[in-house]
Amino acid sequence: MEQFSECDGKARVFHPRKRVNRKTKLLLAFDENARREFLTGFHKRKLQRKKKAQEELKQQLREERKRVKQEARESFKKLIVSHRPVPELENLISKNYELETHSVSIQELSVSDLAENNNWIGINKVQYEDEKNDDGVAKEDQQKAELPGMELKTRKDVKKIIKKQATKQVQKSKAFKLKNKIERQKNKKESLKKKKKRIKTQSNSKKVRKHGKKRK
């Protein structure tokens, strides 16, 4: 379809509009509850992530403690085996022979054993007096007290030492350090909240006092 304009005398061409195909249009229907939950659930999801991270941290700590306890048990077993009483050399050297009428035992005897059995004088032995320090404690006793492992007398003492070493190993682990870091941050936030609350109460009390003076 062509039309002529009076100004320039040129023909204008008008194209007819295309019909809109309404069948292919999509209608989006929003779920108001889901939309509201998504828009207002950022804090909720943050708390969920925090809870999940705390559970993972607790699991890591449990596994670390379990591993350290297992290592402590193994070291305790090795320590018990290494501290077993050694059989006397005389028992290892002695030999017994069973005969028809009697048994013969061959055993190595020392001069001190013969002297003790027969009330002899025996060999000469030198006895040294214990040199005492200023506090009156013998040097030998002091050295025994200072030697590592000499203070361990019972299994209970050994278990205490192993438990102490295990706790030190747990404290050096990454999971324990991360836990301490989270606790420090939490305590810092709580202290800041308390400080702000205290400042706010002080400022409110000052305002109340000023208003009371003005009324007078």
TrEMBL record:
<dbReference type="InterPro" id="IPR019186">
    <property type="entry name" value="Nucleolar_protein_12"/>
</dbReference>
<dbReference type="GO" id="GO:0019843">
    <property type="term" value="F:rRNA binding"/>
</dbReference>
<keyword id="KW-0175">Coiled coil</keyword>
<keyword id="KW-0539">Nucleus</keyword>
<feature type="compositionally biased region" description="Basic residues">
    <location>
        <begin position="191"/>
        <end position="216"/>
    </location>
</feature>
<feature type="region of interest" description="Disordered">
    <location>
        <begin position="164"/>
        <end position="216"/>
    </location>
</feature>
<comment type="similarity">
    <text>Belongs to the RRP17 family.</text>
</comment>
<dbReference type="Pfam" id="PF09805">
    <property type="entry name" value="Nop25"/>
</dbReference>
<dbReference type="GO" id="GO:0005730">
    <property type="term" value="C:nucleolus"/>
</dbReference>
<feature type="compositionally biased region" description="Basic and acidic residues">
    <location>
        <begin position="53"/>
        <end position="68"/>
    </location>
</feature>
<feature type="compositionally biased region" description="Basic and acidic residues">
    <location>
        <begin position="180"/>
        <end position="190"/>
    </location>
</feature>
<feature type="region of interest" description="Disordered">
    <location>
        <begin position="132"/>
        <end position="152"/>
    </location>
</feature>
<feature type="compositionally biased region" description="Basic and acidic residues">
    <location>
        <begin position="132"/>
        <end position="144"/>
    </location>
</feature>
<feature type="region of interest" description="Disordered">
    <location>
        <begin position="49"/>
        <end position="68"/>
    </location>
</feature>
<protein>
    <recommendedName>
        <fullName>Nucleolar protein 12</fullName>
    </recommendedName>
</protein>
